[in-house]
Amino acid sequence: MSLSPRLQVLLLIVEVFWITLDQETHSSVIKLGIEFIINQFSTKILTSILFRYA
């Protein structure tokens, strides 16, 4: 598959931007994402327990 020159330039800009981002920003975003997933999972478990024994 051949990419258009515009798309190649856009991907290069995104890649350079991604590499130059601060490492702390990455870890903060990852921590927030993990907390969100854990909260969603906990909510589903607690809701299913509540409905089962209600």
Automatic annotation (TrEMBL):
<protein>
    <submittedName>
        <fullName>Uncharacterized protein</fullName>
    </submittedName>
</protein>
